[in-house]
Amino acid sequence: FAWSACLYSQGLIPMLHAYKYHQKTLYRQSFIRVMIDHVAYYRLDIRQFDLIAPIGLHPCRRRERGYNQSELIAAGLSQHFHVPMSPRLIIRSKPTPSQTGLPAKERWTNLKGAFKIHSSINIRTKKILMIDDLITTGATASRAADALKNAGVSTAALFTLGTTP
Known about the structure:
Number of helices: 6
Order of helices and strands: EHHEHHEHEEHE
Radius of gyration: 15 Å
Strand order of the largest sheet: 1-6-5-2
Low-confidence stretches: none
Structural class: alpha/beta
Strand content: 15-25%
Largest sheet: 4 strands, parallel
Shape: globular
Distance between the termini: 17 Å
């Protein structure tokens, strides 16, 4: 299952773009606050999860950007809800072109085999909450969830800041 705190709309688009591509990492505080408020308003049970795991970036993209935008959000949520975070659990092992601008079918193809799970972390029967900034077609989350399920997790869920309408 997946939750999103807000729609990817005219108000969010420039902020999220600046956050991801122009080093405006201070926006994470506002994003985390919106997500925390969403959890409170809808009484979502975040503490049911054993681990919070940001969707991984390929090492090349992480070097280019200097940070993983989802990891910064996940850290704030982990701290607020007292759920441990595993920042390197979901590894993007295959360099893929950006999903931005790709048609839906190509997004799914683009990510086939792109994720693996850090093998030294025992996650069998665990409940994992994946964190990402945006869900569009669900391809990224689905491919990451497949990797988690193949590693034996009992639940793989997603919480994002935004979703496309």
